[in-house]
Batch of 2 targets.
Target 1
Amino acid sequence: MKSKFSYISQSFITQGFWTALSGLLLGFLLYGCTPQAAPPQQDAVSSSQPTTSPAQNEKKVILTTFTVLADMAKNVAGDKAIVESIAKPGAEIHGYEVTPSDLERGQKADLILDNGLNLERWAERFYNSLPKVPHVTLSEGFEPVNIADDAYNGKPNPHAWMSPQNALIYTDNIRKALGELDPANAATYDANAKAYSQQIRAIDTQLKQAIAAVPPDKRYIVSCEGAFSYIARDYGLKEVYIWAVNAEQQATPKQVERVINTVKENQIPAVFCESTVSNEAQLQVAKESGAKFAGVFYVDSLSPPDGSAPTYLKLLEYNVNTLIKGLQGN
Ligand SMILES: [Zn+2]
């Protein structure tokens, strides 16, 4: 029987799309590489061609929009499917710009997994170019926390994966999607998802206990992006941020002043930023409030393999440890 997830031919990619894409790439080159931009596509992940060997041909190829989802999906897939991320470690995900190589990989994929909740603003156009490749949104099945900020008021906060409780739902959604795509290996996906969920629960308990040891009046998480609403809710933290979503990254004087005032009023000892954006505005907050700038969190991307947060579980652990050390003045 022919799989319903058959590969698509290149012919539907219209000339118009490629023209648009070249324009986009030219724009990218003209702007140059900002510090938070993805490194050039020459690392092991992007240079690997998933369907070159006969043995690999039998495995399904799953793309995820960013590195955090790829790590979760790899834990569920095990060695039964090939999982790769479209965005590379360190790439800014909200305003990610699709490359010709991403489209090529998209054409060869059997399934694409995304976060949804307006995280991947580029995904719709990407999917329009890949009409035959199915995609599944992983943030289905729970109530999103809305952003309480003027510009985004009432819109869902996209950073749902930052809560381990939500990650359990992501994991189950990955399990279902993989089992449907590849029923022959469904039992393995079920078993892998179960084992991974146990690891997520264990980390969740451990981190919740660590936060509970911080005095209640010191339980603040001050960062650049409002990415911690879900974990703040779960762990009883108060969240303070400069901008709601990293798509902006241009702090207004008013936003900076608001954070400085909150930090001063509550004598918050430490402030932080994230690995994918500039620290500049938060360094100003630190300088003017007297708080210490105590490091960066990993949110919209994992670190490279040799960094501090090469997996989702390590990301959770690193963030909470960095927060606690900062709040303790270490
Ligand atoms: Zn973000």
Target 2
Amino acid sequence: MNCAKRAVTSVGEENFCFDHFCARCYELLERGDSPLSLAAGDYAELAGLLYRLDECAQRALEISLGEIELNNLDRARLLDILLWSGDVTTTLRQKRGKTNAKRAGEEAGQELVEGTMGRGRLN
Ligand SMILES: [Zn+2]
């Protein structure tokens, strides 16, 4: 990503300035929020999206508690990302539960994913 601004965080392998971080979060949130992505029922894609959304929420929290100077609009965006990702991941996890019930034979990778995500939880 070509950007001259200072990177404040990273998601996956990529570094992001504040604006690009928010844009990336909203992109993921919109994907998670779209009925199409839910209807597809692609287990691996769903797990990957959940992982990224958890990561974005974690980063948003870190930025909001960190030393970077933020104006009120910036804070509002971080809060929006946190709350929205909470909504979206809850819905996706419920959806994933139903997908699992239908495809009980394909759960081998689940423990690994849950274990990785568990460390990033807020509580
Ligand atoms: Zn940028």
